[in-house]
Amino acid sequence: KTVTVMDIDFFNTSMNAFLKHIVYPDLANGNKCFIVTANPEIVIETRDHPEFKKVVQSADYVLADGVGVVNAAMLLGQPLPERVSGIDVMYHMLDHAAKQGYSVFFLGASEDSNKKAVENAEKIFPGLKIAGRHDGYFDPADESIARMVVDSNPDIVLVALGMQRQEGWIADNIDKFDKGVFMGVGGSFDVLSG
Ligand code: UDP
Q1: For the chain, which residues score pLDDT lower than 50?
Q2: Which of 54, 61, 72, 130 is deepest in the core (most CB within 10 A)?
Q3: Cβ of residue 110 lying under 6 Å from some atom of ligand 1
Q4: Domain 2-192 class?
Q5: 176 neighbors 151 (Cβ within 8 angstroms)
Q6: What is the ipTM of this complex?
Q7: Domain ranges in the chain?
């Protein structure tokens, strides 16, 4: 089920299988799930930062977000079917959420980028339920941000705080939620905001 590259267990899946067998059922059943989309940069970062490595290893699913990881797995004789990129998973989840009525919280990026990303998401995915949104420039010790996200009762929480910070935020706060699919999305709000 997994392929290990530099101590990180990558979930052995294609994009379609991941959505169909993991994400959509977890959303339908209200299962909590922590997804890390790991590119080679993240894998290297875990080597130098043991705390970050623990966070990545605590995720339910680590996806190979980069040909570098896919190639490394192939060289280790345990091929992964394809690259599963974070931004693609995000777009598929938003599409599914709009169709099925799941709500999404957008946490992270600058206020301007966050606002525009939400506006564009609403345009691209008509009917998308926005649980809430907040920029990513807050004091991590400020508990009120996590409380606001919890109180919005989101089905999906997209966290764009940059590598490490976003995964750390999810690991630190996921226990406060009853449900939710959580994923760090790096610079994806900046892309979505146009
Ligand atoms: N970001 C944020 N809060 C921070 C640092 C970064 O919200 O304290 C956002 C930033 O605005 C950008 C995203 O996180 O939208 C990804 O940042 P960056 O590309 O620097 O991170 P990387 O994922 O490349 O480490």
Answers
A1: none
A2: 61
A3: yes
A4: alpha beta
A5: no
A6: 0.95
A7: 2-192
